[in-house]
Amino acid sequence: MGREYRRENEAEVQATPEQVWEAIATGPGIDSWFMGRTRVEAGAVTTAFPGFTLNHRIGASERDVRFSYATETAPDGRFEAYEFLIEGRAGSSTVVRAVTSGFLPGDDWAEEFEAMSHGLDLFFATLVAYLGGFAGRTAVPLTVAGEPVTDWAATRTALLAALGLDDPRSGDAVAFTVPGAGRVEGTVYHVSDLTLGIRTGDAMYRFVRGFRGPLLGMHHLFGDVTPTTGTAWRNFLLALPPQ
């Protein structure tokens, strides 16, 4: 058993079509808001994660208008496809629409789809935040993991407390300290039951419940990054109360 899916996100951003294109169709651009490390070359979009790599074949590539890519279909039917549509508007604004589709195999497809949907909404919100405040800049992506989650409600409560938040809403101010990485002062730009995004003047910090895995910090840093930055953020997650 399994299920086909399709999810669409759309927003008008204060960026040019050229800036949107650089964000969604180049490796450094994708690195600055998505996840993993990405290369766009030789007709493919390749995204590397710790321990595995996803390969997508580019379909449509019409500069400043449309960009799409998809994985090969696996023996169990699994595949994923991404399409971005760009429409320039007056006043240097642009409408960007992201369409994600594919097939999830197995009896647990509904649980996986829920987690995926929360993630896709967060990634799109991060793209919008990037285009609104960091367009043209390249971030260093940083992903760290906490302990495996056994009680998500308790984990989320502990995380929010560590961030100085209670019942966060988009637009809320946030301030907290990460020992070894410094003070973070910013604004919540996205929040859901499973995800949280915070934007500062030089970074976007994201917290995500991994699908049947640990709490993840999936950040994009535009300022100085030292060899100890990743360790500091990992220790921040590991220091949360038992989960």
How would you describe what is shown here?
This protein is of the alpha+beta class and 243 residues long. The protein has two domains: 2-133, Alpha-D-Glucose-1,6-Bisphosphate, Chain A, domain 4 (2-Layer Sandwich), CATH 3.30.530; 140-238, START domain (Alpha-D-Glucose-1,6-Bisphosphate, Chain A, domain 4, 2-Layer Sandwich). The protein contains five helices and 13 strands. The chain has helices spanning 17-25, 27-31, 109-133, 152-162, 229-238, and strands at 2-13, 37-41, 44-49, 52-62, 66-70, 79-88, 94-105, 140-148, 173-178, 182-191, 195-199, 203-209, 214-221. The strands form two sheets. The protein has a seven-stranded antiparallel β-sheet with strand order 1-7-6-5-4-3-2. Strands 8-13-12-11-10-9 form a six-stranded antiparallel β-sheet. Strand 4 (52-62) and strand 5 form a beta hairpin. The longest helix is centred in the middle third of the chain and has 25 residues, at 109-133. The two termini are 32 Å apart. InterPro entries: START-like_dom_sf. This is SRPBCC domain-containing protein. It comes from Actinocorallia longicatena.
In a few lines, what is going on in this structure?
This protein folds into two domains: 2-133, START domain (Alpha-D-Glucose-1,6-Bisphosphate, Chain A, domain 4, 2-Layer Sandwich), CATH 3.30.530; 140-238, START domain (Alpha-D-Glucose-1,6-Bisphosphate, Chain A, domain 4). It contains five helices and 13 strands. The chain has helices at residues 17-25, 27-31, 109-133, 152-162, 229-238, and strands spanning 2-13, 37-41, 44-49, 52-62, 66-70, 79-88, 94-105, 140-148, 173-178, 182-191, 195-199, 203-209, 214-221.
